[in-house]
Amino acid sequence: MTGVEVSVSGALERLDADLVLVGIGMEPNTDLASAAGLEVDNGIVVDEFAHTSDPEVLAVGDCASQPSAYAGRRVRLESVPNAIEHAKVAAATILSWPKASTATPWFWSEQYDFKLQMVGLSAGHDRCIVRGGPTGTTLSAFYLTGDRVIAADVVSRPADFAAARQLVTSGRAVDPERLADDEIPLAQAAI
Questions:
Q1: What is the secondary structure of 162-173 as a DSSP string?
Q2: Structural element, H or E, at residue 158
Q3: Could you give the C-alpha distances from 99 to 13, 49, 62, 96, 136, in angstroms and in order?
Q4: pLDDT tens column, 44-69
Q5: Mean pLDDT across the stretch 96-117?
Q6: Which CATH number fits domain 1-103: 3.40.50.300, 3.50.50.60, 3.40.50.2300, 3.40.190.10?
Q7: Topology of the domain comprising 106-188
Q8: What is the pTM (predicted TM-score) of this model?
Q9: Backbone phi, then psi, for 20, in 5-degree steps?
Q10: Contact 167, 185 (CB under 8 A)
């Protein structure tokens, strides 16, 4: 048995436990932006060219609430690929070559022996199809709206991730039965 000190309503308490799992969420620190009079709504609000509500100030990366051509709505993404893509948008704006991003969001993380890769945004999906076993060490979960894959979560299956990126980015229709069959290559799931 181990223990951990936690803050409960502002007071520190010691809790005994066999296992402690800590989940940390992310909130953008927008205090400086707010104090400067910039519009803030789940991050610093920017347009498609990284301008804030003050056209002389740009914001990029995890703190920016940006319009997404992919999602068709405003999003704030906490990922290295997004930060790099958004920095390119800001650099183009600074150079007077404004170009909005059309990138499909993707994310990755390595946790011990597992490689987690995600593409797209699963909000609004109407079904999820899983390849591989949830009790195994690898799997791929595909989130569909109708017959289109809008997002995928892949654990330690790099070939599935490459195919998933193609399916999400292309917007091609898939045959759900073929998509679910782990014996059929993903490239053959598209209609």
A1: HHHHHHHHH--B
A2: helix 158-170
A3: 52, 7, 19, 9, 43
A4: 999 999 999 999 999 999 999 999 98
A5: 90
A6: 3.50.50.60
A7: Enolase-like; domain 1 (3.30.390)
A8: 0.79
A9: -120, 125
A10: no
